[in-house]
Amino acid sequence: MKTRLFYPIKEIFLTLQGEGAHAGARAVFVRTSGCNVWSGREQDRERDTKKGCCAAWCDTDFNGTNGVNGGKLSALQIRDTVVKLWGEREQAPMVVISGGEPGLVIDDTLVLTLQNIGADVHVETNGSQQLPDVDWVTLSPKPPMGVKLNMLAINELKCIYPAGFDPLTYASPLPLSIPRFIQPLDSKDPVTNAANAEACIEFVHRNPEWRLSTQLHKTLGLQ
Asked: The pTM is what?
């Protein structure tokens, strides 16, 4: 993995993790710029859905480097921003690197720079890229794009549902100790959202080794 001098970062912000096993935990999010599924342009949604299902519904702004605390930043600049946002706390920072697709951007240098201040480094990925050695990997597959990560190296599986694929396909190689979450597909239509939530609830009833994940940050109006 090639080492970067500067990393394209859309934004860095302090919030609460809204999803998965660490929902509700204080975290600094580092959102990288760029994705290998969707261009981020509305006119490309239909085209890019052929690469990955998320292009049809993604609402994340991952283009450019013009967000809060964004820019083409060095590992030290990212570290210093994390330290400033986290503040003086006895507990070390939890840093969640997301995107876009962070696997296109991050490397060992950035991860080690954050870990050297005691940070737990989490990455949320579609699994299409190999990753440096981080502390927590959340795999959220986006078929038909394939997963290149070793499934046994992930820490949690999070599948959006219903999104045109069977989440059980990805869970089958995992030991039961790996938490798996089903998360309702978010749309702009309240009726559709209610139906998607009900579909996820029924999924958990049929597959009790799964847990429901809701987007807590959206419910609470957090970034």
From this structure: 0.95
